[in-house]
Amino acid sequence: MTIDMSQFYQVFFEEAAEHLAQMESLLLELDVETADKEMLNAIFRAAHSIKGGAGTFGFSDMAQVTHVLETLLDRLRKQELKPTTAMVDAFLDAGDVLKAQLAAHQEGDTFEDPSIAQVCAVLQQLAHGDAASPLAVTPPPPPPPVARTKPEVAADSAGAGPVDHDEGETAPVCWRIEIDRNLAGEALATSLDGLVEVLSEKGTLEQLSGEEETTLCWHLTTAVDRSEILDTLDFVCDEAAVKLVPVASVPADDTETGEDPGYGFFAPPTEEPVASNDENDEGYGFFTDAPGATQAMDQEHPGYGLYGGAPGMEQVAAQVARQQQEADQGFGFFEDAPGGPASEQAPSSGAAPPVNVPPAGGGPRQPPPRRPPAGDTSIRVSVEKVDQLINLVGELVITHAMMAESISMLDPVTHQSIFNGLSNLERNSRDLQQAVMSIRMMPISFVFNRFPRVVRDTASALSKKVNLKLMGEDTELDKGLIERLADPLNHLVRNSIDHGIESPAQRQAAGKPEAGQIVLRASHQGGNIVVEVSDDGAGLNREKLLAKAMEKGVPLPENPSNKDVWHLIFAPGFSTADTVTDISGRGVGMDVVRRNIEEMNGRVEIDSELGQGTRIVIRLPLTLAILDGMSVRMHDEIFILPLTAIRESVRPRREQVKTVSGKGRVFQVGEEYLPLVELRRIFSQDAAHLPVEDGIVVIVDTGEGRAALLVDELMAQHQVVIKSLETNYRKVDGVSGATIMGDGRVALILDVDELMKINRRLNPSTAPTMVQESGT
Amino acid sequence: MPKTILTVDDSASIRQMVSFTLKGAGYTVTEAVDGQDGLDKAKSGKFDLIFTDQNMPRMDGITLIKQLRAMPQYKAVPILMLTTESGDAMKSQGRAAGATGWLVKPFDPQKLLEVVRKVIG
Amino acid sequence: MTDKTKDRAIINAEESREYLTFTLGDEEYGMDILNVQEIRGYDAVTKIANSPDFIKGVINMRGVIVPIIDMRLKFHLGDAEYNQFTVVIILNIVGRVVGMVVDGVSDVVALKPDQIRPAPEFGAILDTAYIDGLATLDERMVIVVDIEKLMSSGEMGLMDQIQSGAV
């Protein structure tokens, strides 16, 4: 029976990613001064779980990194070492390496980078603690592995770090290594596997002692020299505990035992040695013993063991007795049907190729099939399934609306039951819609959690002191939004640190605390999610911004309000920083932030006080799938205008419309002249223009500032389900998507930014005739 | 009547692998996500064999084994520890808690089946 | 889609395949029935501004937004009337759903590969690039069209990669 391990990969990937994220957030929370034991335990557990899974599923490079990570963490949680900032940094680096390894495996690839060896070296050094570290002299990047017995080992040697040395020209020598457990100290117990692994990479390792023995004993046949072996041993146990003597020179070819790393501890029991259990390959001999003996005796098998006389052993003994009656000799564990042991001789575990050995040389792995794990309290469901559900519920809502419309002509008195039924249906389908939507909802902590790290790294790169405060992390929003919110937020936070927060000296001079503060806050406001990024930094400088606007030729209204000025930083290519740093070129990308947010049907607002700080507020709809909109009419067509874009609507007077040479028509609101965007001119094939006074003007916020949108009529406010036009058709200019109205017809959702662009194309400076023509 | 096995591990992937392997071999498998969950599940069922991880949130494997051994119905049921360590300390801890044996991680499905077959058939 | 391709390959290897025949002007066309999702009447469409006239607009088909194209307009076959007899063939082209207005749907016929002969250069409404061949059915000539090729062509402007939404 072979089991395809790759079927579990996906679960492992997800799980490992979760553990890594958890580890990182714990590390960032960790205060090295008052390190909490529980927290260290939790961090250890995360690393430990990754190691367990990685080892099991054959991702030995990850297992190796987590192993050194775990070794140090273990010493920390046992309070043998005190946590330091350097350790936290090393842990974070290790986390990054693991993430990269994980990502590579997900692509069926392996991550090979000198950083792996460096991280491992640093961790090992730290784990070695205060004692003068002999490892410090070893070069961090390992040399390419010399021809090795097992491809698995060769592929992983990059992760083995400094323990992997140039073996030079020396002929292999057999060393007898003895470690006295009593003298070795605590660290040995936990790092024994690792030691065995590391040793077996140096050459051929043969274990001579049992697990129970006080003196551990190996024969290591290797070309590396004595001091190097000592170095390796040194970081798991005290030097005093080690005895290292050469046994004899042996021909290199003769020393293969094919022992699998990770199973290198095969050992016969010590107190009651079972005659046939002497070597790795014959771990089954004692089953020929009487059941009683089996039961009473400790059993050590490759990879597992049983306690003699322990509870449960009677069952085992009875089982063994039965198996013995059924089987002629030995045990046929592998090929048989459940319950019926076959008479075939069991292959030794050393000979049976484990299915989880990665392909030679760490070659590409088939992308794993996605399988949901068997969970207990939650299930993993593909996003497509949830989206399908959301779509169907959307249909239900629409169907209801259609029914409601068709029965609206009925007499409510005589058809009371229909009306009642329909209103029940409405309530139920709304509830259902909300419930289904909530499946896609995730707490914003999924994005917020990365920021302690971002702030830490950015601040230290800029030699600034910044505290981050997270608020409202439990606020839920659509998964799709969460993913798309990460980049803009990242940019805003880095921008705040780079340009908002002053240097410690400047802050002190300004009478502020040395460390600046950045607050990330999320909350629900009405049907919206509001995410705020605020800092207590220098704030925006109005004069500077205005001067810059002048220089860049960015148009501004006369007597611009503060808000108008602040919004300048969202203009493309706008920059006010005296020096542009690589953390965030001021202004560079802020227009992208704005655009990203608007693509989510959101809005960005900015508020700043010179010397006090800056606050950027992002307003987003709860979900990507539903939009609050206003239906507007043009001829007999209905369009949806997103509510987030609407400022106000104005019943226009003819004299408010002016024709500006070369710029088309503008609409005067107070002191301001806004570009007039006529929906009919943009969307209507016929040229029948609407007299301004017959329509209505909606003042909208666009990427280029405010604009006046002229429509025939404002209809009603709706919550609409957003449908993509691109599923079966293609992108349509001026339109961000479509929706289905109560009567079953399709309405297009307007994109005001694109309308502005089209409007500009329709009003080129070379076509004054159009301007005049529209002046009816 | 298929034998029933409880596997207690906080790692979903290991749990899934164990469960899949054993189910494939005809056993009935129940999964628990940590020691506490394992204890609850053990109380509400009857198992022929219990695998438990050592290091888990809420309740670790050693505590779980101790608690199980205190229950009459699990006094003599084989309980195996899954462990990444193979040192003496771990073993004597396991023995003291009342474990029947241990299985070192990483292990592969064959190894797992081998052990299970040996212990409960 | 790959499944479908596979199915088709099997059918191809074995025997005849089924074709839906439809008329455009005076010509009769046949298309692989596997591309046909359903046949329905013409509904009110929502116009898409600034698109070619043969793209009538989009409709809501059970919650899916489906573009409707009028082949009669596309190939300038006189006045295209829309009444209760107007037929829309809903096609599934590489996973996309498209509605195609034609003059009429006539039949479903089975054709063996050897019944379809290569098309000579001739003045059909459709460009020969989209024609698989000609078949004769009871004295009628059926032009077998590769509907997938036709619908995904740049000429139809139905998909983004070909025509990037210029106004």
UniProtKB/TrEMBL annotation, chain A:
<comment type="function">
    <text>Involved in the transmission of sensory signals from the chemoreceptors to the flagellar motors. CheA is autophosphorylated; it can transfer its phosphate group to either CheB or CheY.</text>
</comment>
<dbReference type="InterPro" id="IPR004358">
    <property type="entry name" value="Sig_transdc_His_kin-like_C"/>
</dbReference>
<dbReference type="InterPro" id="IPR002545">
    <property type="entry name" value="CheW-lke_dom"/>
</dbReference>
<keyword id="KW-0067">ATP-binding</keyword>
<feature type="domain" description="HPt">
    <location>
        <begin position="1"/>
        <end position="105"/>
    </location>
</feature>
<dbReference type="GO" id="GO:0006935">
    <property type="term" value="P:chemotaxis"/>
</dbReference>
<dbReference type="Pfam" id="PF01584">
    <property type="entry name" value="CheW"/>
</dbReference>
<feature type="region of interest" description="Disordered">
    <location>
        <begin position="132"/>
        <end position="167"/>
    </location>
</feature>
<dbReference type="GO" id="GO:0005524">
    <property type="term" value="F:ATP binding"/>
</dbReference>
<dbReference type="GO" id="GO:0000155">
    <property type="term" value="F:phosphorelay sensor kinase activity"/>
</dbReference>
<feature type="region of interest" description="Disordered">
    <location>
        <begin position="331"/>
        <end position="377"/>
    </location>
</feature>
<dbReference type="InterPro" id="IPR036061">
    <property type="entry name" value="CheW-like_dom_sf"/>
</dbReference>
<dbReference type="Pfam" id="PF01627">
    <property type="entry name" value="Hpt"/>
</dbReference>
<dbReference type="InterPro" id="IPR051315">
    <property type="entry name" value="Bact_Chemotaxis_CheA"/>
</dbReference>
<dbReference type="GO" id="GO:0005737">
    <property type="term" value="C:cytoplasm"/>
</dbReference>
Automatic annotation (TrEMBL), chain B:
<dbReference type="InterPro" id="IPR011006">
    <property type="entry name" value="CheY-like_superfamily"/>
</dbReference>
<dbReference type="InterPro" id="IPR050595">
    <property type="entry name" value="Bact_response_regulator"/>
</dbReference>
<dbReference type="Pfam" id="PF00072">
    <property type="entry name" value="Response_reg"/>
</dbReference>
<feature type="modified residue" description="4-aspartylphosphate">
    <location>
        <position position="53"/>
    </location>
</feature>
<feature type="domain" description="Response regulatory">
    <location>
        <begin position="4"/>
        <end position="120"/>
    </location>
</feature>
<keyword id="KW-0597">Phosphoprotein</keyword>
<dbReference type="GO" id="GO:0000160">
    <property type="term" value="P:phosphorelay signal transduction system"/>
</dbReference>
<protein>
    <submittedName>
        <fullName>Two-component system, chemotaxis family, response regulator CheY</fullName>
    </submittedName>
</protein>
<dbReference type="InterPro" id="IPR001789">
    <property type="entry name" value="Sig_transdc_resp-reg_receiver"/>
</dbReference>
Automatic annotation (TrEMBL), chain C:
<dbReference type="GO" id="GO:0007165">
    <property type="term" value="P:signal transduction"/>
</dbReference>
<dbReference type="InterPro" id="IPR039315">
    <property type="entry name" value="CheW"/>
</dbReference>
<feature type="domain" description="CheW-like">
    <location>
        <begin position="16"/>
        <end position="156"/>
    </location>
</feature>
<dbReference type="InterPro" id="IPR002545">
    <property type="entry name" value="CheW-lke_dom"/>
</dbReference>
<dbReference type="GO" id="GO:0005829">
    <property type="term" value="C:cytosol"/>
</dbReference>
<protein>
    <recommendedName>
        <fullName>Chemotaxis protein CheW</fullName>
    </recommendedName>
</protein>
<dbReference type="Pfam" id="PF01584">
    <property type="entry name" value="CheW"/>
</dbReference>
<dbReference type="InterPro" id="IPR036061">
    <property type="entry name" value="CheW-like_dom_sf"/>
</dbReference>
<dbReference type="GO" id="GO:0006935">
    <property type="term" value="P:chemotaxis"/>
</dbReference>
<keyword id="KW-0963">Cytoplasm</keyword>
